[in-house]
Amino acid sequence: MNKILALSLAASLLPLSAAAANEPAEAPRALGEEASIVFPSDSTIRNWRADRDRGIWVQDRRGDWFYGTFAGICRDIDFAPQIAVDSRGVNRLDRFATILVRGERCPLVSFVTSAPPPSKEGASKEDKKTADAAEDAVAN
């Protein structure tokens, strides 16, 4: 009995790095898949950024990014200090939700997992190509 206890105590004292090495690595999140954010509110949406008037990147509280494509253009979203979400009572931000910007309704047709948006300052041509390719993939 004492030996078993001693072994279990020794095993529990292993460094965390050794224990973490035995666990499988977390699989990367698939991009471009339809998704949703449950109960969209100030506590579940950490950040957002407009993609001109074509779409919107939204970051949830875990730091994951999503990209929503508008059904048409959404004027003034580039300059809006805040947005609202009309989820029509389902309490979920997904492709059926509408983004409200200064009284204008901007319905979404797609809401997918995404990489972070390109940086505003000095976004390289490669970043723009990547963002356009991701948007084209979502459209098709």
TrEMBL record:
Transmembrane segments: none
Signal peptide: 1-20
InterPro entries per UniProt: DUF6491
Bias (Basic and acidic residues): 122-132
Matches recorded under Pfam families: DUF6491 (PF20101)
Region (Disordered): 112-140
Superkingdom, natural source: Bacteria
Keyword field: Signal
Name used for this protein in its record: DUF6491 family protein
